[in-house]
Amino acid sequence: MGNFRVSDLALGRQGCPIFSALDSLLVNHATKNRAVQNIGGIANFSISPAGDVRGHYDLDTGPGNVFIDAAVRYFTQGQQEYDHNGRMGAQGRIDQKMVDEVLSGPYFQHDIPKTTGRETFGDSFAEDICKKMLTQNGAATPEDCIATITRITAQSLLDHYRRYAPVPLDEVFLGGGGSYNPNIINYLRENMPHTRFAMIDELGIPVGAKEALGFALYTCEGFVGRPLMVPRRTESERAGVIGHVQAGDNHFDLRRRVVNFWGDWAADQVLPTTKMVFEGMEST
């Protein structure tokens, strides 16, 4: 199976983020509003409202690690790829004026639904921020630039939580490389004191395996012709099966096995999965 994002586009949505249905199956709780936060190159989060597994929605908030990694490579001439444990950023001073200038840009002001990528927040954007800081402030250091760029990520996350998360937001489960950067996570904890932050490993899913789990689930659902739960607050509420089958030599035998296990259901009776149970944990 493949082309999951292309299939989502064909249904009238943006193709990314794409794991809102998975996230809601994993974290939906009867009484707690929860979020799943991914800080990869681009940062995004999904919201799963209390007691409403179908009420999930998601959005890209802007740069995650992409700016930080680009700045580290820029200042180390490619000798380092990322700011390990946020050490460089922790030694710098934040240029709040620069942070606010970047966050006044059009993407951050745009309403949801929205998605973005490196075509908007690429290495050259991060390098331009660094060059501008060094030009405007002769005393600025590489650490100052990395601290400032890190705050852009953290503050953009906070801004989007304040705009789009339910109140109260009880828990946020973290994933992605940026979740290990204390300069980001501590800022969120300080400014969201009533929200508990925890790694998604707490749910029994290794943080590095979550995306693989998502594609495995979507492959299973697509192969049996079952649509996913449609996220709310998106361009289209059209349900549909996502993913394209690339048939192998045993394709028809595998389909027979699936039908024998699953049963021969009429199309209008194949409904989205709304509950997931797996070893030692139940999503309720």
Automatic annotation (TrEMBL):
Q: Name the source's superkingdom.
A: Eukaryota
> Which InterPro entries does the annotation name?
Anhydro_N_Ac-Mur_kinase, ATPase_NBD
The record's SUPFAM superfamilies line, in alphabetical order, gives: Actin-like ATPase domain
Q: Care to name a GO molecular-function term for this sequence? A: ATP binding
Q: Name one GO biological process term.
A: peptidoglycan turnover
Name listed for the protein in its UniProt record: UPF0075-domain-containing protein
Q: Which organism is it from?
A: Sphaerulina musiva (strain SO2202)
The uppermost taxa in this organism's lineage are: Eukaryota, Fungi, Dikarya, Ascomycota, Pezizomycotina
